Every structure is written in C-alpha cells, then in structure tokens.
Amino acid sequence: MKTQGALLWEPGTNSGWSIEEIEIDPPKRREVMVKLAASGICHSDNHFDDGVIPLEWAPILGGHEGAGVITEIGPEVEDLEVGDHVVLAFLPSCGHCDMCVAGKSNMCVLGAGILGGTAPDGTHRVHARGQGVGCASFLGTFAPYVCAPVDAVIKIGKDIPLDKAALIGCGVPTGWGSSVYAADMQLGDTVVVVGIGGVGINAVQGAVLKGARDIIAIDPVPFKQRKAKEFGATHVVSSHQEAAPIVEQLTNGQGADRVIVTVGVMTGDLLEAAQALTRRGGVTVLTSAAPILQRDVQIDLFTFAMSGKRLQGSLYGTTNARNDVPLICDLYRSGKLKLDELITRTYQLEEINQAFSDMKEGKNLRGVIVYD
Ligand SMILES: NC(=O)c1ccc[n+]([C@@H]2O[C@H](COP(=O)([O-])OP(=O)(O)OC[C@H]3O[C@@H](n4cnc5c(N)ncnc54)[C@H](O)[C@@H]3O)[C@@H](O)[C@H]2O)c1
Ligand SMILES: [Zn+2]
Ligand SMILES: [Zn+2]
C-alpha cells in the first residue's frame, strides 16, 4: 500500500524527518499489518538523527512506540486475527530462545537485529524513492500502517484506548520496569530518578507502585518537576547537587537505595554523580542511551567495590513484554498506573519535526502522533 512516512535520509546530521510517500508490502510469513492509532515520540528516535546511535544505512523509517488494530494477516500466523487490538513492542521476543525461556525476553536473540536496517528475514517491507527502507525496531511507527513481525505484536483488551496504549510499546515498560525489575525496588526505599521524560516519569510510577518511601526527581525543567510531583515524587530538584543534601537528610547520611538514570543523553559524568547518590549496597540503574562510541567514565572504583554497590543496565526495563504489557493494561484499568496523563500534546505526522523540537526543549512529558 502507498502511504506517508517520516524518513531520515542522512542519519547523524540533525537534518530532521522528511515526510514522503512510502510503499509498504503486504505481510509475509509470521507478519501482520497494523493500522496505527498513535505513535509516541521517544528520545531514542532522535538518537538516529543526532548520531548518538549511529546508523550505517539509510533511509530509516522512524518510530517504535505504537498501538493499533490488525487489518491483515500473513501466512503461518497463529493466535492473532483481523480486528485484534495490539501493542507493538520495540523489542521482539521469539518465546523459544534460551533467554526467552529463562524469562528474560528483553534479551531475546531477535533484539540484536532491531537496528539492522531490514526485516528479520533480511529483506525490506518498506520502500521509498525506489529503494528499500529500514524500519526502527522492525516497526517504523512514523507511518499510519506497520507491517510487523508477530514476535513484536502483543494483543490487548479492546477497552484500553489505543492512542494511550501506544506508550506501552516503549516508554511505559522501560521506565516502570527500570524501577520495578531492574532496580529491584523494595518497600520503603528512598529512590532518585534522574531525568523526567517519557521514560523517567514511568520510573516514578514504578517507584510509587513498589511502595518507595521517598522519591526524589531530578530535572532542570520546572514543567517536568511539576509533573513528577503530580505522579508521586515526594521531592523535586534541578540537579544532583541540589538532590545530595536532601538525600542525605532523608537517609541519615546513607544515600539512596536506588538511583535510576533516565536523562535524554547519557554522559560519563552523570554516572559518577548517580553513584555518589547511591547508598552502600544500593543499585544504580542506567536506562539512558549514551553516544555509542563514548568510553569516558570516571568512577571512584575503591568506594564502588568496598561499598558493595551495583551498577545495573536496563533494556526495556528488564520486562518480559508478553507478561508485562497485559499487566500494565491491568494496572491502568484499576487506576494504579496513569497513561492518559503521560500525553502532553498530540501532533499530526506532518508536525513531527515540531514534536521532536518540543521534546528536546522539555515541553512534553510525552508527545504523540495521532493517526485518523
Ligand atoms: N534502555 C532502554 O531500553 C531505553 C528505551 C527507551 C528509551 N531509552 C533512553 O532513555 C532516555 C530517556 O528517553 P525519554 O524518551 O524519556 O527522553 P526525554 O527527552 O523525554 O526525557 C529526558 C529528560 O531528561 C532531562 N535531563 C536532561 N539532562 C539532565 C540532567 N543532567 N539531569 C537531570 N535531567 C536531565 C530532560 O530535561 C528531559 O526531561 C533516552 O536516552 C532514550 O534513548 C532507553
Ligand atoms: Zn523508545
Ligand atoms: Zn527469544
């Protein structure tokens, strides 16, 4: 089918997204066509444009946070049918590799290919200007339709509003899971969340759900600080320096049990700053993406070892999407997890560059592109 999509032709040059005609093939083996309701604007897509995540191929159809309705089914698809409401997971899970079987589906072998520039079978589903287009996370939700591998498609109840459900494709589980799973949060913890965007605000939600006693949100943007309070942060500050005396006072000088880093772009100095706020035996979780070639980090290694601290990476919040996407829907239904309030502003696809510039200026908790 012919439709419109947002492409990057020169990744890494801050050239912005080009809206143009694309052609999407019908679903092949174990694929479905999904008519999207909405796509979230996640900072990771900007990393293709600014070069934090360098790509060696182009063009890319961006977008990896979407939800919609299945309109067409390819061969050998079981358990899904036309009309099903689905969330598209930015990390696929096959269900039978060693990591999937071990209950670590965010480490599924299929995940290794999401930035490879083709569908899992090595061919293209999307074409523009007569050539193959790579899709972010095998998806490409910056277009009204997505031909998606079933391993990334998760059926949800028809009562969940699809425009809100889009955020369950990436930002919600990534942030929520960074608290609930990656940080291994415990009742009564003192928690610091660094960076209150579409990911960090969900780390705040996860901390609330796990019964954290104190939640200190750090973000330089006053609007983000207000939102963090609304979502349950007990303290809001602009910087690590401002957070330090508060953490010290709240913990009798011990430091925070968990520090979760969800800033837009990770840098080495931010890791040492996060470590410094973490208590003996505590956990620092790194969820943010850093420039791929960055190697510079300075840590007080003596104290790190002798204080038994843990540094924990977090991909997709260490969630198991097939279990956690329905769980997040249940928590939303019962009023325990907010989705509607995450969306600050909606945009048409044509306004995508405005949406990214608003994200970079800190104007949105999450911006969302809505489709007809
Ligand atoms: N690990 C994963 O699986 C995964 C998944 C999705 C996104 N990410 C990454 O998570 C990060 C956050 O994504 P997002 O969509 O929430 O971004 P965002 O732009 O919506 O939010 C980032 C926030 O960080 C704040 N910030 C920037 N520098 C800061 C600093 N020094 N101290 C405190 N706050 C600061 C900004 O003001 C902004 O509010 C990105 O790096 C993204 O690529 C990782
Ligand atoms: Zn994302
Ligand atoms: Zn797998």
From TrEMBL:
InterPro entries reported for this sequence: ADH-like_C, ADH-like_N, ADH_Zn_actinomycetes, ADH_Zn_CS, ER, GroES-like_sf, NAD(P)-bd_dom_sf
Keyword field: Metal-binding, NAD, Oxidoreductase, Zinc
EC id: 1.1.1.1
Signal peptide (from-to): none
Keyword NAD: yes
Cofactor(s) needed by this chain: Zn(2+)
Descriptive protein name: alcohol dehydrogenase
Phylogenetic placement of the source organism: Bacteria, Bacillati, Actinomycetota, Actinomycetes, Mycobacteriales
